[in-house]
Amino acid sequence: MTKRKTTAVVIGLGLVTLSACGSSDSGGAGDSKTVTLVSHDSWAVSKSVLADFEKQSGYKVRVLKDGDAGQAVNKAILTKDNPQGDVFFGVDNTLLSRALDNGLFQSYEAKGSDQIVQQYRIDQDRHRVTPIDSGDICVNYDKAYFSKHKLAPPASFDDLIKPAYKNLLVTENAGTSSPGLGFLLGTAAKYGDDGWQDYWKKLKANGVKVVDGWEQAYNDEFSGSAGGKKAKADRPLVVSYASSPPAEVIYADPKPKAAPTGVASGTCFRQVEYAGLLSNAKNTKGGKALLDFLITVKFQDDMPLNMFVYPVRETAQVPEEFVKFGPQAKNPETLAPAKIADHRDQWVKSWTSLVLK
């Protein structure tokens, strides 16, 4: 819900990243003391939290970061018969059906699953994946720009096609970027199978700019971000995350009392990330222990300020900065994974023809 170079859920503004550690060989089935987590590039955890797990479980965690979310999922599918690791983290609801249909995961009901918020629990009959985090893909706005121009920031998808916001929005390519895809899915959820293309025609006519990924959109094109200010960016609207404004506060020096950016709450699409025990994992016992760890209160409490996503465990604590500057949308757009599975590829193909050509 970060990531956010060309994927899904994290603000790349100085995250604590984890280097690969331990042996490159995960050993024999069930008896290795190294467990390997395969993830997208935005995986992050506090060293002390990971050390506690390693001490208590007896397993050394090796992390293999494998590009953005789409790239990592595709590679995991291609290598499923001889997987690179034991657990995969970071497949979200936009790509989940692809992973499940290709038999990427084996069944395992993680300890503590009953403590996960009910709305995020899916695949309850087979338990092939465990929800780990959620986040909202939303349009962010540069408060200073709208104040200077005495213009109210947009609040909804409908607002973005009004003449007042012409040439102000930058978004990511839906074919190469997780937030870009999420924004497309949000419009499909809002306007339906028959209406989303007409909406994008109007958005294109209103001057929307499309770039490859989040990093470019947010840090090079968006005037409200710290990076955008340095780059003298000129787009005051960007597709990013509801957790982006807290990141702007947390990583600023000195810290401002208010976030310099805001969220258009009527433009949000809910993204959920999952983890699962890989089919043919060599260390299934270690993989199960690692999955259990990912939904403990300790990891879930630690996760927001490392990966800038929301926890899914009911009793986990949400950081004050998230509550104040980046609350989750009250009524985000959502689509069932099955609906996404049936239409995603065709939607992206149609979007590409409509918007990029």
Strand proportion, as a percent range, falls in 15-25%
Task: Tell me the Rg in angstroms.
Answer: 20 Å
Query: Main β-sheet: number of strands, strand sense, barrel status?
Result: 11 strands, mixed
Shape: globular
User: What's the total number of strands?
Assistant: 11
Low-confidence stretches: 1-30
| SSE sequence, one letter per element | EHEHEHEEHHEHEHHEHEEHHHEHH
Structural class by secondary-structure content: alpha/beta
Tell me the distance between the termini: 28 Å
Mean pLDDT: 90
Count of discrete alpha- or pi-helical segments spanning 4 or more residues = 14
Helix coverage percent? 25-40%
Can you put this structure into words, describing what you see?
- The chain has 357 residues and is α/β, with parallel strands linked by helices.
- Helices cover 37% and strands 17% of the residues.
- The chain is built from 14 helices and eleven strands.
- It has helices at residues 47-57, 69-78, 96-101, 143-148, 157-160, 178-205, 214-221, 226-230, 244-250, 284-294, 297-302, 304-307, 320-325, 337-356; strands at 34-39, 60-65, 87-92, 105-106, 130-142, 169-172, 209-211, 237-241, 261-263, 269-278, 310-311.
- Strands 1, 2, 3, 4, 5, 6, 7, 8, 9, 10 and 11 form an eleven-stranded mixed sheet that branches.
- The longest helix is centred in the middle third of the chain and has 28 residues, at 178-205.
- Residues 1-30 have low confidence and may be disordered.
